[in-house]
Write the structure tokens for this entry.
Amino acid sequence: MIDLRNLSRRGFLNLGVAAGAGLMMPGGLIRPALAAAKPLAPVAEKDAVIAFGHTGPVTDEGWTWSHDQGMKAVQQAFPKLKTIFVESIPYSADASRTFRQFVSEGANMVFATSNYGDFLYDVAKRSPNVAFFECDGRHPMDNLGTYYVAHWYPTYVTGIAAGLMSKTGKLGYVASFPVPSVYSGTNAFLMGARSVNPNATLQAIAINSWFDPQAATQAGTALLDNGCDLLFGIMDEAGYLQVAEKRGAKAVMWNTDIRRYGPKGYISSIVVDFKKFYVEQVRQRLAGTWVPSTPILAMGAGVDRDAWGETVPEEVRKQADAARDKILGGWSPFTGEIKDSKGAVRVAAGKTMTEEELYNWNWSIEGVKGL
């Protein structure tokens, strides 16, 4: 039986950040090489095959769509190489077969845009001359790197807007699973809200899926029925934004700008952009300089808040963006004292959480319910 607490952002087997993992300071990106890794041989552009394995459909207008845009940027930057992709890969033995198929088709580099754990690792071990990169992975190897985004910083920023705009102080969250990306999202959002409204609370409902518009709509409806007047979540579609729009509530979204589904309800979105990252990694692979690294893309360099929605007051924008500017200048809002949902002190007064701790956050702060 798999413990859902050990699910990662998009898959299974949260094994903890391994030795050699890179740390990201706010506003910057560090890409360390693993000590034992050696660069793979260069590949001529005309002979190169770059593969992408996706957890959802490329038409989701969310997570997978964002990675697909990264693939398109690679195609534009290197028009002579070949790209292949498979979407909606299940977390099962079918995933291993897909990754093996990439290798058999001559892939020189494989991006798994979700954490596929052992379904990917076994293939990587058997293919030492292929470069692998796993999004939200936690087990780097000599030919496999990991990457992710520091979404907790823009989430804190949008949380400030939420705290200022919520009339009840009751925030709702449409969750996928109880995983680190959800904990860091709910916690950062509520911490931002509580910085301007100390009495704010957050109720979460997990729907056990990353892409289920019907379930997300039902969860959003239930949260509003329970007294929440502002929604957040980590879904790959606009279900709960549409609910908020119809009910006169507000919502913060994830992945992309989807305000057209609820322009008056839309506050902002945590937007991700992998284009520059993918182009640079492929460039290194072709040049024979690629070695596995473990970057966390910083706010402003792979993840950020979207442009504010039309109904966000100017004073709210200014107050939230003042925090954003401080973060870009090196300040971290994740400094203790921070207590968990049971009242125990988890981060001592004056101590700032490390990027590793934020990446692997697996407990709820005071005021979060439902996880």
About this structure: The first helix runs from residue 63 to 77. The mean pLDDT is 89. The first strand starts at residue 49 and ends at 53. The radius of gyration is 20 Å.
